[in-house]
Amino acid sequence: MAERINLLQVVNGLAIGGAEKKLLELVKTLDKKRYNIIVCSIGQGGPLQKDFEALGVNVIVCQKRNKLDLSLIFTVARLIKECEIDVVQTTLLLADLVGAMAARIAGKPPVISWETVSHGENDILRTGNRHILAYKFAMKRVSRIVAVSQEIQRSLIQRRGIPAEKIAYIPYGVDLKKFARRNGSIDKRSILNIPSDRIVVGTVARAEPYKGVAYLQKVALQMVQQHPKLDFVFVGDGSLRKELEAEVAAQGLSERIHFLGFRNDVHEVMNTFDIFILPSLTEGLPNVILEAMASSKPVIATAVGGIPEAVVEGETGLLIPPSNTTAIMDAIRSLLSDHKAALRMGEAGRRRVEENFSLQKEVSSFEHLYQQLLDEKKNGR
């Protein structure tokens, strides 16, 4: 049997975010007989720490002492040396910078940057010159950049000047057993205080401006007054939640527009939805859309980032422009008026995920990349 590969996963923190949850899923799925995995959180711990530890992997939290704590680089470099790390993988910007520099100091093991954020026209997460310079500095020192969408791959080349051969395209994958259409959604509705005869439009997204949830809330406030059997469900927490929830309560609509906050049972809540919607202003390839499709839900989503690579217009869902409440409303009305078409889109979405976006396919692609980089290092490339 081949020796186990020592794999170091460096991440900004262990908060509950899309990138962090995808890392948790990857670590959970990788073969522990083949990989000895260490997770290093730089800057902060977080609620996901216990989930990583439950997988039996070693979790190390390096607290950040200030905004620009350069000592983190040397801390991670020591970890790479002491644990004889074979491959370093980084998730999110600070981890990219610290992991790449630490690997250089420690003897240059291959470094993979997992790129989940769009760099296209709607990139509102990295607009500052300081962030752009730090990103370019880090990317010159990594072995591969994994792009989760073809849109990210293109924008890395065109907008960030990254050589094409340095980029590996590995789209997100979904656990097809966990996310599937199941019976029992009516029972789950009763637990959530949603009457069984309601039509439910739901979203799963952080309550932050870039997720566009404020636009969906405006639509919800209007549509529930027009449709007595229509409810809206918002799953996710964030800086806007209290404000949006208070506005709904002030209009006496809390029994029709439900804010559930963070949930560990998203795969069950998803099955209470009749329509899934994601009104983001910017995205990479949002895993939640793939989860909705795997759950056989028709999807309404903004045509930003890698979303059009997953949602096929008119076949698995409807694509709309960002920041447009009229488009949101029209798309919802379209699916409400044609129940059979909505069901067909949901089933087509499930088939598309099975064929193109399975978790096993994603994990196998990472395993192939790890071995490819080790072979390149062995051959002196």
Q: Assign a percent range to the helix content.
A: 40-55%
SS-derived structural category: alpha/beta
List low-confidence stretches: none
The tally of domains stands at 2
Name of the CATH architecture of the largest domain:
3-Layer(aba) Sandwich
Order of helices and strands: EHEHEHEHEHEHEHEHEHEHEHEHEHHH
Within the CATH hierarchy, at the fold level, what is the topology of the largest domain? Rossmann fold
Which descriptor suits the 3D outline? elongated
Biggest sheet statistics: 7 strands, parallel
What is the CATH homology-level superfamily of the largest domain? Glycogen Phosphorylase B
Mean pLDDT: 93
Beginning-to-end CA distance, first to last residue: 25 Å
Gyration radius, rounded: 21 Å
Structure description:
This protein is an alpha/beta fold and 381 residues long. The protein is 43% helix and 18% strand. It is built from 15 helices and 13 strands. The strands form two sheets. It has a seven-stranded parallel beta sheet, sandwiched between helices. Strands 10-9-8-11-12-13 form a six-stranded parallel beta sheet, with helices on both faces. Helix 3 packs across helix 4, helix 4 packs parallel to helix 5 and helix 11 crosses helix 14. The two termini are 25 Å apart.
In short:
The protein is an alpha/beta fold. The protein is built from 15 helices and 13 strands. It is 43% helix and 18% strand.
Q: Key features?
A:
single chain, 381 residues, alpha/beta, Rossmann fold, 2 domains, 7-stranded parallel β-sheet, 6-stranded parallel β-sheet, 15 helices, 13 strands, 43% helix, 18% strand
